[in-house]
Amino acid sequence: MALGSDMNLKASFAPRVACVEGATVEFSRREAPEVDITVPDYLLCVNFNPIRNAVYAYSGAAERRGIRKVGFAHLIDANHNIKGYTPEPTNHVVFTLNPKKLRQLALSTFEDDRFSLRTEGVPFFDPQIYQLARSVRDELCADMPGGSIMIDSLATMLGIHLLRQHSDLKRPREQHVTLAPHKLAVITDYVQAHLNQDLRLNELANLADMSPFHFSRCFKQATGQSPSQYVLTKRIEFLQRELIDTRQSLLELSLAAGFSSQSHMTKVFKQTVGLSPGEFRKRYL
């Protein structure tokens, strides 16, 4: 087969599959005429030969019947079912995209990870999706060095295209989002009261009722520090006070300040203050 051309539809061949982070792509020929599948990921199937009298049903909906032309795609939502019957063997490229990967792409592209793909179960033609599928097919058949990098790039391009053209997401609006003073006070009070615990970004963002992405940006605008930098600053300030005002051991102080060990606390304290905790205590007592 010449790369970029259509494969001989009468020929059988072993499936060509590649797995990258958050996605799997496959070029294969399905001989069995019936399919009934539910997968945990988003699934996109692109046909490479016309199908006459195809029958399909999406997530329990009424059956549909029709012709699927070359390049037609079928987009299935995560954890949804698709049943189909095709009287002829079909060659196709199948993408499966992990919901986590799409959420990460949505967050970095649209600053919002809440979205729905338009997956009504109706076959459609999108020239860019068809071209991406052809590129994936050719890359899988070429079996050249660097193929996994190419496949990863193509899967990422597909994910962004689906979010742009086949989702309910809109372009991020150029508006100034801020962290309200009362929410900032809740966050800072919570940090101060829970320094001895493992404070996670998601936990703080939930207190502000914001996504982690928006919370991080707004918190830095309000304080001049990222949430992790702020927590570290408060832990060091706590240690400085306690080293002078109490006689607690370094091990006790490291646990009270939320460090995993005394050695970790000592390393971070010296990097930040320029003195070890013991040296700091001797100097300022």
Largest sheet: 6 strands, antiparallel
User: What is the overall number of helices?
Assistant: 10
Largest sheet, spatial ordering of strands: 1-2-9-4-7-10
Assembly type of the chains comes to single chain
Task: Tally the structural domains.
Answer: 2
User: SSE order in H/E notation?
Assistant: EEEEEEEEEHEHHHHHHHHH
CATH superfamily of the largest domain, by name, is Regulatory protein AraC
Low-confidence blocks of residues: 1-10
Percent of sequence in beta strands: 15-25%
Within the CATH hierarchy, at the fold level, what is the topology of the largest domain? Jelly Rolls
Structural class: alpha+beta
Tell me, rounded to a whole number, the average pLDDT: 84
Q: How much helix is in the residues?
A: 40-55%
The level-1 CATH class of the largest domain: Mainly Beta
N/C terminus separation? 81 Å
Q: So what's the overall shape? A: elongated
Number of strands: 10
CATH architecture label of the largest domain: Sandwich
Radius of gyration from the CA trace? 27 Å
Topology of this structure?
Elements lengths: L15 E5 L2 E8 L3 E5 L3 E6 L3 E8 L5 E5 L3 E5 L4 E5 L4 E8 L1 H12 L13 E2 L1 H16 L4 H19 L15 H13 L7 H7 L4 H12 L3 H19 L4 H7 L5 H12 L3 H8 L1
Antiparallel strand pairs: 1-2, 2-9, 3-8, 4-7, 4-9, 5-6, 5-8, 7-10
Offer a concise description of the structure.
With 285 residues, the chain is of the alpha+beta class.
Walk me through what this model shows.
Mean pLDDT is 84; it is low at 1-10. Helix 1 packs across helix 3 and helix 2 (127-142) packs antiparallel against helix 3. The termini are far apart. The chain has helices at 99-110, 127-142, 147-165, 181-193, 201-207, 212-223, 227-245, 250-256, 262-273, 277-284, and strands at residues 16-20, 23-30, 34-38, 42-47, 51-58, 64-68, 72-76, 81-85, 90-97, 124-125. The strands form two sheets. Strands 1-2-9-4-7-10 form a six-stranded antiparallel beta sheet. Strands 3-8-5-6 form a four-stranded antiparallel beta sheet, with no helix packed on it. The protein is elongated, with a radius of gyration of 27 Å. It folds into two domains: 16-165, Regulatory protein AraC (Jelly Rolls); 181-284, Arc Repressor Mutant, subunit A, CATH 1.10.10. 44% of the residues lie in helices and 20% in strands. The chain is of the alpha+beta class.
